[in-house]
Amino acid sequence: MKRSIVFSLALIFLATALPLSAQVSIAPSTVFIDDQTNIGTVYVSNRSDDPQEVSIDFAFGYPTSDEEGNLVMTYEDSLAYERHAINEWVRAFPRSFVLGPRQQQTVRFQVRPQPQAEDGVYWTRVRILANPQEAEIDMATEEEGITTRISFRFEQIIAAFYKKGQTTTGVNVKGVEVRHEEDRMLLLPRLERTGNSPFIGSMRAEVYDMDGNMVAERQTTTTAYFEEVRRIAIDTCEIPPGEYRVTLTFETRRGDISPTDLVQAPAITEEVNVTIE
User: How far apart are CA 55 and CA 131, in angstroms?
Assistant: First the structure.
């Protein structure tokens, strides 16, 4: 007698990891809310030909790092939650909905006024989960009598920030570790955030020879929520051996976020002398 066995798999794809998640797009990629309006907006678009069941919830978290400067997301910091989370203050409207093919839905986030809260920037992560209504795929083997049903669920996570009162930010560079690995140089600055808001911006490394000529340059986005180790790699395969000066510059400027949304700070510069062999 043939047996029929059904396996159901739910696969979740992160937005940043797989192109499949582009079936549902979110704009903007970061939400900024201030205490003048207490309202933020995102647009959820269904680019596929299938209706999508969409739900929204919140998870407090922030990017930090390990000692190697690798990015690590932290979601279980209860002390930071008590001091900085807006999870208890924010609501999404609507919180769940069905989005038809090629349709767009406006989602508004409303933060209840918090007169007792100190000035500063508070935040959370917004999780948007999309589940195609007709996404089940049956794969059966007649011989085995086994059927596998796969349902695809697409999860995208974006940051939401709430500005209250006077906001300030900045970073102290507590030291820069330099490592050499074959044809590249790793710079690992240890950052300590200042002010009452996360530092969100960019980190630029410039390498100068002893005559003051710039021989290499690299830039990347960066953040500092508390105390972090960040990393930036410089390709050294075409740089002649010798003594060099590296300038690291931290600015509250990013190509993907308007300057008016970012808490601004003067540029911070740190210099370190290096030897390339």
Answer: 9
* DSSP letter assigned to residue 21: G
Structure tokens at 145: 């009598």
Distance of CA 6 to the CA centre of its chain: 37
For the chain, the residue count is: 277
Question: CA-to-CA distance for 34 and 167, rounded, in angstroms?
Answer: 11
Query: d(Cα 122, Cα 260) in Å, to the nearest integer?
Result: 17
Domain-wise residue ranges, the chain: 5-164, 169-276
Is 5-164 a CATH 2.60.40.10 domain?
yes
Contact 216, 247 (CB under 8 A): no
Kindly tell me the sign of the dihedral angle through the C-alpha atoms of 28, 228, 155, 37. Answer: negative
Q: Which CATH architecture has domain 169-276?
A: Sandwich (2.60)
Rounded-to-integer distance, Cα 195 and Cα 76, Å: 23
Amino acid at position 237, single letter: C
List pLDDT tens digits, range 170-223: 999 999 999 999 899 999 999 999 999 999 999 999 999 999 999 999 999 999
Residue 197 phi, psi dihedral angles, 5° rounding: -140, 150
Is 33 in contact with 163 (CB distance < 8 Å)?
Answer: yes
Instruction: Write down the residue that tokens 């990629």 correspond to.
Output: 29
Spatial contact of 157 and 211, defined as CB atoms under 8 Å apart: no
pLDDT, tens only, 132-145: 876 455 555 455 55
Q: What does the alpha-carbon distance between residue 266 and residue 63 come to, in Å, rounded to a whole number?
A: 22
How far apart, in whole angstroms, are the C-alpha atoms of residue 138 and residue 150? 7
Distance (Å, rounded) from C-alpha 205 to C-alpha 247? 6
Helix (H, G, I), strand (E, B), or coil: what is residue 32?
strand
* Residues 154/159/160/162 CA torsion (nearest 10 deg): 170
